[in-house]
Design goal:
Blueprint lengths: L13 H11 L12 H9 L2 H15 L3 H35 L3 E6 L2 E6 L8 E5 L7 E13 L1 H4 L5 E2 L21 E2 L4 E13 L5 H5 L12 H32 L2 H15 L3 H19 L2 E3 L4 H5 L4 E4 L11 E8 L7 E6 L22 H9 L8 H13 L10 E7 L7 E8 L5 E7 L1 H8 L3 H15 L4 E10 L14 E9 L6 H10 L3 E5 L4 H11 L5 E4 H6 L2 H8 L2 E5 L3 H13 L4 E5 L5 H6 L2 E5 L5 H6 L2 E3 L4 H42 L7 H20 L22 H25 L8 H5 L12 H25 L4 H5 L4 H19 L1 H7 L6 H34 L3
Helix pairs in contact: 3-4, 3-8, 4-9, 4-23, 7-8, 8-22, 9-22, 9-23, 11-12, 15-22, 18-19, 22-23, 22-24, 22-26, 23-28, 24-26, 24-30, 26-28, 26-30, 28-29
Length: 892
């Protein structure tokens, strides 16, 4: 590795970095335009409901009714405040996720490696680059070790670019150092191989990607199927509403000759029918769901993935670190016997070669010198500063077992490395040691790959594979180690050119996470197929799958997968539990085959080569702790703790979000039926209007928090993980759901009609004979129009409470859900009653709303009628739920 071309190895100091950050600003491209308060206000006023409210307020003032106009303006302001709050909740959740998922950069400051937000990188910083990293800023290379960078974002070229060091400049001033294209790195590109260091020369808008412009930040996500379905429904309803309102305005205007009041009535009808709350819940639920997922250790990079998460039918998961604790310990060693042949000797596993039990673990007990080369070359074939848990375990064992007296080599310099590749699952390092004239070559990797490098005979290969199987059967991760020597500096292109000698096997233990069996059981009860995909041996993977509680199934190896046609692979995967010895590029075939079977696939990954599979999967899940930036950029979700149980909690939460969204949309559709009826029926019958724009605005203050906050806060159903995955092609709000919501709304409308009819007993509207035979207790004294309107609204608010409670519960569970906590829902219902009481009894509200206080008896009748709607709605839901169940059992 070349030496650093700089006069210091400390990097910037913290104080220098802070000064430059203040001078140059953050390392960010111009952010996608975030809406200002005024822009948000303008967008809200373009929404149909608010536009209609503002129009109605203006019309009231044109009619000279200043009190009603001002009151409606106050209500408009209240609705705006509520909308701002709800939208603010969504944007705050998304912004919090944006901050959590912003890229990180490793820099050298004060002589120490630090992980900082990429936005805090400044000119002069030393960037530490390794495979899978996203380059945080433009810079010139100081060191490069087999460094290849994907620059397709800037150049459009798909091939990765090899990077070399620049010629030594005559000055250290950054402004005078003009690097060659192959000796510089650019912000936004990805390291696909090797490692290096670069000194930052430009950040933010001064970088290459910043000069290209802000177009790269203007990412427009396509609408989800759910959004498209809802948009179609709203468009159909809006068209019907538009035609109906125009007809009603023309009819009333022609009938009465009063066009402005007729226009007001038409506006009230449009507001009553149009379910504009759908846009609120479709924005709020995913955003708040993403915030809830964050608490479960799952960061959401693409909000739309939440819609799909709960529908997952196949979950493809890594083994190491996801099912296991990713805390590797060297547990078993095997070296060639002393016969001089490359044959297995004793496997050291909790005993020494003589069979005497160790008093402590193998990593702490003294080992025979025969094992020292195996340990030392495993360390030399690892990163000098290890990050991978297996390499960390090798270094830890070396610190315990090797000291200066039994090391074959002293301090050295890594001069060449050969990374893992799909064709060779082994890593090789070439070292230069002062006391050794030749170069020392160390290799570790999959046993089959090291066997190929060592050119073992068939007999030797078979005997060592038997040894591998014995270790793998104990649930160990098995790697092989080899070494070689090389003269000169003209290194070959491939490790196959070295003359490797076999050293032996190392078995590592990675215990299963304790919460995994319950998480796997939850997946099984939820109808989710779990497939373990690993590069490890089949025997090891099957043992971990058995410990995790996965059902018995077949095992598919990477070699078998390559021999299968696409059709055969699709058929095979329906019975597979474990895919072992799988290369990252084979994951993409697995995802595509599962999708061809109609499955909704969630896939985990952590490496550069996992990115295609993560992008192809319906839900790509990257590892947060050990994943590369490339994998995180390609994924929809990021696991903070790399834990499989977090994925299952995410699926549970995704199902809860979708279920609550369904409940909310049922409620929205149902509540608009009685509101529309109260607005439409008096217009058709030629009666005085009961529903004015003021009243719709008042109801919006109840409906908006109910459909969004109350239902979003609803706890999950007890059997949410006992249901099969939902069909993503089935509409969220299909014909059956619309009919049920219509029936619920008609139940409430019938109760409102009953209240209205009872209020008319003594008004002369009833036939005399029927009025005379009516029970004396139910006769009401002659009520004014304002009192009748108050009775109607009491029944409507009671019916609204019934719709909230019944749609919380679902069919047959009404009484059970009454005891289920949801303080937000009960708070919304309580505040609605308080607000209605003020609107009826407080003159400042009662007068513009055209309400008058009621005697006790009419109040009780209106309330009882509303409670009756609760009974009818619950009964209707029970029948709707019980009917199919009875039909399935043959009793109906």
């Amino acid at each position: 590795m070349a030496a650093d071309h700089h006069n210091t190895t400390q990097g910037l100091t913290t104080a220098q970095a802070a000064t430059r950050l203040a001078q140059d600003g953050t390392n960010e491209i111009g952010q996608a335009n975030r809406r200002s308060v005024w822009r948000r206000l303008a967008d809200m006023l373009r929404q149909p409901m608010l536009a209609l409210l503002v129009t109605a307020a203006v019309l009231y003032m044109l009619l000279g009714d200043l009190t009603e106009g001002m009151t409606l303006s106050v209500f408009v302001l209240a609705v705006l405040v509520l909308s701002f709050y709800q939208e603010g909740q969504s944007e705050a959740a998304i912004e919090a996720l944006r901050q959590l998922t912003q890229p990180q950069a490793r820099v050298l400051r004060d002589g120490q490696t630090q992980l900082i937000p990429a936005s805090n990188v400044v000119v002069g910083d030393w960037l530490l680059l390794s495979e899978g990293d996203r380059v945080a800023a433009d810079g010139r290379l100081l060191t490069a070790n087999n460094l290849q960078i994907d620059e397709s974002l800037l150049t459009g070229e798909s091939m990765a670019v090899d990077k070399v060091l620049p010629e030594m400049p005559a000055t250290d001033r950054l402004a005078d150092q003009i690097p060659l294209p192959a000796s510089c790195v650019h912000g936004g590109t990805f390291v696909v191989r090797g490692s290096g260091r670069a000194q930052v020369t430009a950040t933010g808008m001064h970088s290459q990607i910043g000069q290209i412009g802000q177009a790269l930040t203007q990412v427009q996500q396509a609408d989800t199927p759910l959004q498209r379905q809802t948009a179609r429904l709203v468009k159909v309803l809006a068209s019907l509403v538009g035609v109906l309102c125009v007809v009603m305005v023309l009819t009333l205007g022609w009938r009465t000759g009063q066009w402005l009041p007729s226009l007001l009535a038409g506006i009230a009808l449009a507001m009553a029918i149009l379910p504009e709350e759908y846009s609120v819940v479709l924005t709020l639920f995913p955003a708040m769901g993403a915030r809830r997922l964050t608490r479960e250790g799952v960061l959401t990079r693409h909000i739309n993935a939440i819609e799909t998460l709960g529908a997952t039918s196949v979950l493809c998961t890594d083994k190491t670190g996801t099912l296991t604790q990713n805390r590797m310990t060297v547990t078993a060693l095997a070296v060639p016997s002393q016969t001089g042949m490359a044959e297995p000797g004793d496997i050291v596993h909790w005993t020494d070669p003589s069979g005497t039990p160790y008093p402590t673990t193998p990593a702490e007990a003294p080992l025979s010198s025969a094992f020292h080369p195996l340990i030392e070359h495993a360390i030399l074939a690892s990163a000098p500063t290890p990050f991978d848990p297996m390499e960390t375990a090798f270094h830890a064992m070396g610190q315990r077992q090797l000291n200066d007296t039994n090391r074959a080599f002293g301090a050295g310099q890594l001069v060449q490395s050969y990374a893992l590749s799909p064709s060779l699952k082994a890593m090789s390092h070439v070292w230069q040691f002062e006391q050794v004239e030749d170069r020392v070559v160390s290799a570790k990797g999959a046993p089959e790959a090291i066997m190929d490098l060592c050119h073992l005979s068939d007999g030797e290969r078979q005997r060592w594979l038997t040894c591998v199987a014995q270790m793998a059967a104990q649930g160990l991760r098995v790697l092989a180690v080899a070494h070689s020597r090389f003269e000169g500096d003209d290194y070959p292109d491939s490790p196959h050119a070295f003359d490797f000698e076999w050293l032996g096997l190392i078995g590592l233990t990675d215990p299963l996470r304790p919460e995994i069996p319950q998480a796997v059981a939850d997946c099984q009860s939820a109808g989710i197929q779990v497939i373990v995909i690993t590069g490890d041996f089949p025997v090891t993977a099957r043992e971990i799958a058995r410990q995790a509680g996965l059902p018995e199934g077949t095992t598919l190896s990477g070699e078998e997968l390559d021999r299968l046609s696409d059709a055969a692979l699709r058929e095979r995967l329906s019975h597979v539990t474990v895919c072992a010895r799988i290369s990252p590029h084979q994951k993409l075939r697995i995802v595509q085959a599962l999708q061809a079977n109609g499955e909704v696939v969630a896939m985990t990954g952590d490496g550069v080569n996992d990115a295609p599979a993560l992008q192809a999967a319906h839900v790509g899940i990257a590892m947060g702790a050990r994943g590369t930036d490339v994998a995180r950029e390609a994924a929809d979700l990021v696991l903070v703790d790399d834990n499989f149980a977090s994925i299952v909690r995410g699926i549970r939460l995704g199902r809860r979000i979708f279920g609550n969204l369904q409940k909310s949309m049922h409620y929205i559709f149902a509540i608009h039926i009685p509101i529309a009826g109260i607005a439409l029926i008096p217009m058709v019958m030629g009666w005085p209007a009961l529903m004015l724009p003021l009243h719709v605005a008042l109801l919006e203050l109840v409906i908006d928090p109910a459909c969004s906050l109350a239902f979003e806060s609803e706890p999950e159903e007890a059997d949410v993980m006992q249901r099969p995955p939902r069909d993503t092609h089935a509409p969220l709000f299909g014909a059956q759901a619309i009919l049920l919501a219509l029936g619920q709304g008609l139940c409430v409308l019938a109760s409102v009609a009953l209240t209205f009819a009872l209020a008319q007993v003594d008004s002369g509207a009833w036939p005399t004979a029927l009025r005379n035979n009516w029970p004396a207790q139910l006769h009401l004294s002659l009520l004014s129009e304002a009192q009748i309107r108050a009775m109607v609204f009491i029944t409507l608010i009671a019916g609204n409470a019934a719709l909230i409670l019944s749609n919380r519960a679902g069919g047959g569970h009404f009484w059970h859900h009454l005891r289920k906590p949801n303080s937000v829902a009960y708070g919304v219902i309580g505040l609605a009653w308080v607000f209605l009481a003020l609107a009826i009894h407080w003159p400042w509200l009662a007068e513009p709303l055209k309400f008058e206080p009621l005697p006790l008896w009419p109040t009780l009748i209106a309330t009882g009628s509303g409670l009756l709607s609760g009974v009818s709605v619950s009964l209707l839901q029970w029948v709707a739920a019980a009917g199919p169940a009875l039909a399935r059992t043959g009793r109906c």
